[in-house]
Amino acid sequence: MVLITTSNEIANLYNKLKNEKFICVDTEFIREKYYYPKLCLIQIGDSKGNGWAIDPLIKNINLKPIYKLLTKTNIIKVFHSPRQDFEIIFNLINKVPEPIFDTQSAAMACGYGDSVSYENLVKNIVGQKIDKSIRFTNWEKRPLSNKQIKYAISDVTHLSKIYLNLVKIIKKNNRIEWIKEELENFKNKNLYTTKPYDAWKKIKFNHNNLNTLSIVREISASREKLAQKLNIPKSKIIRDDIILKIAKNPPNSIENFKYLRGVNLSNIDNNIKLIILKSINIAKSKKISINNKNNNNTKVSKALLEVLKIILLNSAEKNNISSLLIANKDDIKNIAIGKRNIKSLKGWRYQIFGSSALKFIEGKASIKNINGKLIIE
After folding, report:
1. What is the spatial distance between Cα 308 and Cα 356, in angstroms, rounded to a whole number?
2. On the chain, which terminus has fewer CB atoms closer than 10 Å, C or N?
3. How far is CA 248 from CA 207, 214, 244, in A?
4. How does the average pLDDT of the chain come out, rounded?
């Protein structure tokens, strides 16, 4: 159990790991109080199961060797479900680690189910149980206890065995292409940043009135900019549900805010209200054309959707693979309404699922139950 707290120790660790074929990486962070998640700990493991934790909160500590290690192209960086880790790293160095291996994606291609947890992989592959009693600890608080450090480092010490085991299975079953696309997706930098005028798309609602959508879009953009500037959570400025209620009954003055029904404005000061009013005026003055994020309103038979789901599950079961790796609910709906330029109808997905789905839609296939097994003919 090693906690690294000096720049010299980091430099030594870099020299120790720079020629490894792969390293295992994880991070601990706090995001509840910030817009940009705050990095609180970096864990790195070697190919032999050794692990180290690095404290990035030490004043003036030099993390550049670690960033260099994460971007060295001769070393595979092994993560488990790394989207949040990559968000932190990208905001720090404007790069995503490369090349990478995601044990969650790989496990989905090896029959371990949908979005399998690291804890379950350790249990099923390594044969050990992880103590999760301090999983939701405050990683920003110092000093860290020995139990916290031990727990954090355990998130990488088992990854080497998991990685080697999954790679062996994937190569044996010729499934490298099955996860290649998933790994490529992590290179998309749009995953780790939100453009202010795209922020409204993350709000859950079902409304098609263009004026209302325009106001939601403008207020959301203003909120996003302010949250980024102050580095505080968006909800601390104004919650999603309040944005929706304001957009449906937009006030035209600070005085009018008090007439909004079902809206608690006790935490919203006049400066925020002025920003909201300005956003409303911009939305009304601009003739904005917005493509509704829920524009896929084509009606489709629920029975057909259910049959396609059955074909999907049968394909997943037959090939011992997670159904989510083949297709999601949007893919199923798109197939049902006649769209064809989607990932589940291409490459290996087409071979194990897409072809059967299309043949059923075209009336060229039937589903039978023979001796308790689903057969698609």
Report:
1. 9
2. C
3. 10, 11, 6
4. 91
Query: Both 260 and 319 in a single domain?
Result: no
- Same domain? For 146 and 239 the reply is no
Which stretches of the chain are assigned E, i.e. beta strand? Answer: 3-4, 22-30, 38-45, 51-54, 76-79, 100-102, 367-370, 373-376
Are 49 and 9 in a shared domain?
Answer: yes
Residue 290 has pLDDT above 80, yes or no: no
Residues 134 and 73 in one domain: yes
Q: Is the pLDDT of residue 159 over 80?
A: yes
- Tell me which of 141, 157, 192 is where a domain ends: 192
**H or E element, residue 357:** helix 355-361
Q: What is residue 267's three-state secondary structure? A: coil
Residue 296 is assigned to a structural domain of this protein: no
* 107 and 38 co-located in one domain: yes
Rg (C-alpha) for the chain, rounded Å, is 25
- Is 292 part of any domain? no
Domain annotation covers residue 291: no
Spatial separation of the C-alpha atoms in residues 134 and 313, rounded to whole Å: 36
| Total structural domains within the chain | 3
Q: Which residues have CB under 8 Å from 170's CB, separation 6+?
A: 106, 109, 110, 176, 178, 179
- Res. 135 pLDDT band, cuts 50 70 90: confident
Domain membership of residue 75 (yes or no) is yes
Range of the domain at 307: 302-376
Q: State both tokens at 296.
A: 């896929």
Looking at the structure, do residues 174 and 203 belong to the same domain, yes or no? no
**Contact between 76 and 99 (Cβ < 8 Å):** yes
pLDDT at 81 over 60: yes
* Neighbouring-strand partners of residue 376: 367
pLDDT at residue 295 is higher than 80: no
The region that residue 10 occupies, defined by phi over 0 for left and psi between -120 and 50 for alpha, beta otherwise, is alpha
Same domain, 162 and 66: yes
The tokens for 25 are 């990486």
The conformation of residue 145, written as its DSSP 8-state character, comes to: P
Query: How do 22-30 and 76-79 pair as beta strands?
Result: parallel
Q: What sign results for the dihedral spanned by CA atoms 146, 151, 156, 160?
A: positive
Please choose, from the candidates 76, 113, 120, 126, the residue with its C-alpha nearest in 3D space to the C-alpha of residue 97.
Answer: 76
Tokens at residue 54, please? Answer: 């690095």
What is the C-alpha separation between 186 and 101, in angstroms, rounded? Answer: 10
